[in-house]
Design brief:
By secondary structure, the protein is mostly helical. The protein has four helices and no strands. This is Molecular chaperone DnaJ.
Length: about 60
């Protein structure tokens, strides 16, 4: 079983980040780690983590 990830760390934002800050951080990370743009072997895994983090943090019900 994997330890629970800190989604704020995944996106590189503080725990009191606004929705706008979350969105900007998501876009920056997504562009950097998108598998079509980043040929690193870990790019796909990292991109999935970024998407999951943003999905949870941008949804008020999942976030709580």
């Amino acid at each position: 079983m994997q330890p629970k990830r800190d989604y704020y760390d995944v996106l590189g934002v503080s725990k009191n980040a606004s929705q706008e800050e979350l969105k900007k951080a998501y876009r920056k990370q997504a562009l950097q780690w998108h598998p079509d743009r980043n040929k690193s072997p870990e790019a796909e895994k990292r991109f999935k983590e970024i998407n999951e983090a943003y999905e949870v943090l941008s949804d008020g019900e999942k976030k709580a």
